[in-house]
Write a structure and sequence with these properties.
Structural class: alpha/beta
Order of helices and strands: HHEEHEHEEEEHHHEHEHHHH
Oligomer: single chain
Helix content: 40-55%
Low-confidence stretches: 6-52, 54-67
Number of helices: 12
Number of strands: 9
Mean pLDDT: 79
CATH superfamily of the largest domain: Spore Coat Polysaccharide Biosynthesis Protein SpsA, Chain A
Shape: elongated
Distance between the termini: 161 Å
Radius of gyration: 34 Å
CATH architecture of the largest domain: Alpha-Beta Complex
Largest sheet: 7 strands, mixed
CATH topology of the largest domain: Spore Coat Polysaccharide Biosynthesis Protein SpsA, Chain A
């Protein structure tokens, strides 16, 4: 009887230990979202299954395949004092990702110091994607700052991408404001070019330590884009496409302010982001029909088509001017060569006649010839 009790006690002990070990292993393997700086709530947790990747120690990539459209992923970094506002903003991005089945990457801790975390996080994802086969990797990444709010989740990101017929390969879509480049929102093609581009930005302050970067990594990106190998493959887009602000910054010519139907609003340069984000999320939730509409109900498609067609037309004009310039230069060069050849031929005839005349003169002055004449 005692042996039976001892046996049962041993079995129970083994079962308890096994359950404890398994629980520890499961906790170790799963993303530690319960300790994350940014807690997403039950809605985000349900969306995260198959769409969003959140992990403190690295990235997990969950990609939805099977579409003939370019595969696009969204990526952001969110941590710090503005946690409540960032959580509200992120919820709008998750809803957008759910509608269009975009994988979304969130990093909620620092990889390196300051705002340079942006390029470091992007480079991490780009390198991971490049290790995959082309059929399994994303084609584009859309970077969004944590202080951006999706106001129209019905807008697909594919609408902004350059057409396949475009005259050159485009690897970066960006916008500018009154301060120059603003990299709060931009599109980056997953490619070796992107890897080199991001690496150049991250290395900039190391190799140019004496240069002042007023907007840190954003200024470094602007400087790197001045290099031909990067600038040639980047296209500046209208800010209202995907990087609109809550106001136009007082610029009477270029309008940056967000309008109903546009994709998102970016709270760049605003001090109390939590209050501003809360105000705009409140507007959205109070009257979604005013802000949200299908892309066909906006002027996005027409405006974007005209934009890319205009760039193609401008390129064609520049190409014709270049060819005309080269043609004229060749004609001038040919004409100059003909003149040079004619002058050379004339000088050659003169040089050929002159020796005969000199010989005749020499003979006339020869004393021996005079003696015998």
């Amino acid at each position: 009887m005692n042996m039976c009790r001892i046996y049962k006690a041993v079995v129970i002990f083994i079962v308890v230990i096994t359950i404890f070990v398994l629980a520890e292993e499961i906790t170790r393997l799963r993303p530690h979202t319960e300790h994350a700086a940014l807690k997403l709530g039950s809605k985000a947790a349900s969306i995260r299954q198959g769409i969003v990747s959140i992990h403190n120690s690295g990235w997990r990539t969950l990609i939805t395949l099977g579409s003939s459209a370019p595969a696009i992923g969204k990526i952001t970094v969110a941590h710090g004092k503005q946690n409540k506002g960032y959580q509200q903003a992120l919820s709008t991005h998750l809803a957008h990702a759910e509608v269009h089945q975009y994988p979304m990457f969130l990093l909620n801790h620092k990889l390196i110091d300051g705002l340079w975390n942006k390029e470091a996080a992007l480079l991490d994802v780009v390198l991971d994607q490049l290790t995959r086969s082309k059929s399994e990797r994303l084609e584009w990444l859309m970077w969004v700052d944590a202080d951006t709010v999706i106001m129209n989740k019905q807008i697909p990101l594919e609408v902004f991408l350059p057409p396949l017929s475009f005259h050159k390969e485009v690897n970066l879509l960006y916008t500018k404001d009154w301060n120059g480049l603003n990299n709060g929102v931009f599109f980056l093609r997953v490619s070796p070019w992107a890897m080199e581009f991001l690496s150049s930005i991250l290395a900039y302050r190391t190799f140019r330590p004496d240069e002042e970067l007023d907007f840190t990594e954003q200024s470094a990106m602007a400087r790197v884009l001045e290099l031909d190998q990067y600038g040639h493959h980047a296209v500046e887009c209208p800010p209202q496409w995907f990087n609109a602000y809550p106001n136009d910054g007082g610029d009477p010519i270029v309008h940056y302010d967000h309008l109903p139907g546009q994709l998102l609003v970016h709270f760049a340069g605003i001090g109390d982001k939590t209050e501003a984000i809360g105000e705009w999320v409140g507007k959205l939730e109070a009257n979604r029909s005013h802000w949200e509409m299908l892309v066909g109900s906006t002027n996005y498609e027409q405006q974007i088509m005209e934009f890319w067609d205009g760039l193609d037309e401008e390129h064609a004009i520049q190409q014709r001017l270049k060819e005309e310039k080269e043609r004229k230069e060749k004609e001038r060069e040919k004409e100059q060569n003909m003149k040079t050849n004619a002058t050379t031929a004339k000088e050659g005839v003169g040089q050929a006649v002159e020796p005969h005349a000199q010989k005749a003169a020499d003979r006339s002055n020869d004393p021996m010839r005079q003696l015998w004449d």
